[in-house]
Amino acid sequence: MKWTPNEVDMFLQAKEYVDTALIPLVPVNFAENIKQSASMKDFTEILTLEIERQFKGRIMLLPQLAYLSSWDEPKRLELAADWARGLKEQGFAHVFYITSDSEWRVNEQGLEGSLIWIPSIPLEHLEEKHKRPMIDDQVRQVLAIFTRKWHD
Amino acid sequence: MSKHRVSRRQFLSYTLTGVGGFMAAGMLMPMVRFAVDPVLKASEGGDYVATKQKVDDLTEEPKRVDFTIKQVDAWYESEETQTAWVYKDDKGEIVALSPVCKHLGCAVAWNTDKSNPNHFFCPCHYGLYTKDGANVPGTPPLAGLDVYEHTTKDGILYLGAVKPHKGA
Ligand code: FES
User: In terms of DSSP bridges, do strands A94-99 and A20-28 run parallel, antiparallel, or are they unpaired?
Assistant: First the structure.
């Protein structure tokens, strides 16, 4: 489900079935990586919307969590941890972060939720007909991660 | 002086409410129209969209067929990819099922659960459907998978509106 008024209605009615929260982590960088930063945001958005479409009934896709790349690690970890704690208090049994920012892999254990890291593909360089198989492929990999966690 | 004379203040407040109300209506109307539009569009129906699937290549094994529809909402015109599970039944008739689970809307897939071969399986809460799309009682979904209307032109499969499943 998405964070929209309609789908939140649906969520309220089916809360016990929606046990997984997905938080996209998106870096914003105005320095030399500005283009790459924007491209990551795009990629993360398209990928998470597709994940949401396929797992609508069990996953709540939260709004993107943006932060400045210049933030130091403790500050970033705190941001992520606050969200995960808040969501767990709301009854989500599984909290996943999804990101293309490799900085998060450095201290994965420091996170409250599970990290899904997917290298960003600059979709703006791809032809329309190649985008879909690419995204499908990524979604399949993410599905495997979810199902493993759900079966634990 | 007559009691019915409208004071200057009253006059102003009447007219301003009037104008304000009119302006509000002016703003609301287009918003409502935008909001309703996509729905109206969808129900116009009757339109078939070409897939890339050759009808001759279809077998009795359900196959995933993707196709794209143009979607217009208030802000964007976008292409949305939809999926159907398509096969030929034992009479050779084409069946095209919607992948949207009737429980809470996850995408089902054919034959992905090892303990339930030859079923459509929903990974979210383990909903099951038989090959014809009927829901297996005892699993969360309470209805069968929706069915796409379909037609064939020049050997190519065209898909149309979705209809509710008609029992088994
Ligand atoms: S959404 Fe398919 S079983 Fe719940």
Answer: parallel
For residue A55, how far is its CA from the centre of ligand 1 (angstroms)? 9
DSSP at A20: E
The CA–CA distances, whole Å, from B134 to B12, B62, B106, B130 equal 65, 14, 16, 5
Residues B136 and B116 in one domain: yes
| Contact between chains at A17 and B124 (C-beta distance less than 8 A) | yes
- Is the pTM higher than 0.90? The answer reads no
Q: Provide the CATH number for the domain around residue A83.
A: 3.40.50
What is the mean pLDDT of each successive set of 10 residues along chain A, which is 152 residues long?
A: 95 96 96 91 94 96 96 94 96 96 88 92 83 88 91 80
Residues of A in contact with B125 (CB under 8 A): 17, 57-58
Distance A74 CA to ligand 1 centre (A): 38
Q: Give the residue carrying structure tokens 């020049």.
A: B154
> Where residue B43 falls among pLDDT bands split at 50, 70, 90?
very low
Residue pLDDT, tens place only, B60-90: 999 999 998 887 777 777 778 899 999 999 9
For chain B, how big is the Rg over CA atoms in Å? 26
Q: What are phi and psi of B33, to 5 degrees?
A: -65, -45
Total domains in chain A come to 1
Backbone angles phi, psi at B42, to 5 degrees: -60, -35
Q: Are B33 and B60 part of one and the same domain?
A: no
Instruction: Tell me: do B19 and B54 sit in the same domain.
Output: no
Which one-letter amino acid corresponds to residue A40?
M
Q: B139 and B65 in one domain?
A: yes
Ligand 1 atom 1: the closest Cα is on which residue? Answer: B104
Q: What is the CATH number of the domain that holds B79?
A: 2.102.10.10
Closest to A102 in 3D by CA, of A69, A131, A74: A69
